[in-house]
Design brief:
It holds the Pfam family DUF3231. It is a single chain. By secondary structure, this protein is mainly α. It has two domains: about 55 residues, no CATH class; about 140 residues, Ferritin, core subunit, four-helix bundle (Ferritin, Up-down Bundle). About 65% of the residues lie in helices and about 0% in strands. The protein is globular, with a radius of gyration of 22 Å. The N terminus is likely disordered.
Length: about 240
């Protein structure tokens, strides 16, 4: 229910804007985005159906339908003191999505810890696992307080192998990329969670994840593993003839 409401709120404006753009844009390369969006949606539906058929799909917490209305009290925003309202559907969906992400990332780095060849990279993965566990505890508590299921059934099977299937470079890059995605996740959750205590939790997790991601970038740079992305010209140097 929370996901449906979240998608409805987010996509209504997007649909209006895209409809306007498509009605006025003549460039065929730009109009091609509609086909790309349809293909991505079809792939997402196929993956969901496959997971449902194999019993691997993890369903989010379910809440009963509530009457539609408007917010009239500031209690809706409160979270630190006094009477605190239950989580909204959107807030529940965000907490659960972050729990899912943490669960997948924890399983991944657990395997990476076993096969990493350098101590520095292995320690970085271990630090990632500890951060994930701590943040998962914070998120789970939010659901438990509202009598919602917070346990994600683990479908991950991690072998005992210590033979690295990938290089430390590739594994470190992958974890760094996931950390960047996690920063975006915390930001999205912060934006749609009006309860003040949730905002504080997300802000703390965001700062912690940003620091971790920054340290990962430094590790990539130190080892000469980070490719430089395209950059804007340095006009000052061009003017100086450098």
């Amino acid at each position: 229910m929370g996901n449906l409401w979240n998608f409805y709120m987010a996509n209504t404006m997007s649909r209006c804007m895209l409809s306007h753009f498509l009605a006025n844009v003549e460039d065929p390369e730009i109009r091609w985005i509609t086909k790309l969006s349809a293909a991505a949606l079809e792939l997402s539906n196929t993956i969901t159906e496959l997971m449902l058929n194999k019993g691997l799909y993890i369903r989010p917490p379910v809440i009963p339908p509530t009457e539609q209305g408007y917010v009239h009290r500031e209690r809706f925003l409160a979270g630190f003191f006094g009477d605190k309202r239950p989580l909204s559907g959107v807030e529940i969906s965000q907490v659960f999505a972050n729990l899912q992400f943490n669960s997948i990332k924890t399983a991944l780095v657990t395997g990476f810890i076993q096969v990493a060849r350098t101590d520095e990279v292995r320690d970085y993965f271990l630090r990632c696992k500890m951060i994930n566990i701590k943040q998962t505890t914070i998120l789970s508590k939010l659901l438990v307080q509202d009598d919602l299921p917070a346990t994600l059934p683990s479908q991950f099977h991690i072998t005992k192998s210590t033979v690295p299937p990938f290089s430390d470079k590739l594994m470190l890059f992958h974890v760094s990329n996931l950390s960047s995605a996690k920063v975006r996740n915390w930001g999205d959750s912060l934006a749609v969670s009006p309860r003040h205590d949730l905002g504080a939790d997300y802000e703390r997790n965001l700062k912690e994840t940003m620091k971790f991601a920054d340290d990962g970038a430094k590790l990539l740079i130190e080892r000469g593993w980070m490719e430089q992305p395209p950059q804007a010209p340095e006009r000052e140097k061009l003017r100086a003839g450098e």
